[in-house]
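Design a sequence for this backbone.
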């Protein structure tokens, strides 16, 4: 599964609005932890097949979102269901925690 890449706040907003369930990965350009986290997230997202749109954005390119979401470290995740924010994480998480996060997002979409 490839991540969509949003290049700025406007592209990010547009991508999120097109996905029933969207998970946005905020990363830093020179962040080694972010590279590892992205690889892990790709692997986990494969299990969700086409149920989740995964979107990657560099935090410095989406400053309005970063500010409004209160993101203060990378990597971070933001989850949206039908364009509505449902959850935000901050910092690198372990794989089981990411899996539970995604599962809770999918379940919230089914309600």
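Sequence:
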């Amino acid at each position: 599964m490839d991540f969509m890449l949003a290049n700025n706040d406007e592209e990010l907003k547009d991508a999120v609005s097109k996905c029933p369930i969207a998970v946005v990965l905020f990363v830093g350009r020179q962040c080694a932890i972010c590279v590892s986290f992205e690889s892990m997230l790709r692997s986990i997202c494969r299990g969700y097949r086409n149920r989740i749109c995964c979107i990657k954005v560099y935090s410095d390119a989406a400053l309005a979102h970063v500010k409004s979401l209160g993101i203060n470290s990378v990597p971070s995740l933001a989850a949206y269901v039908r364009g509505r924010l449902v959850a935000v994480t901050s910092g690198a998480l372990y794989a089981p925690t990411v899996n539970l996060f995604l599962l809770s997002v999918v379940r919230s979409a089914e309600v």
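The two ends are 26 Å apart (CA to CA).
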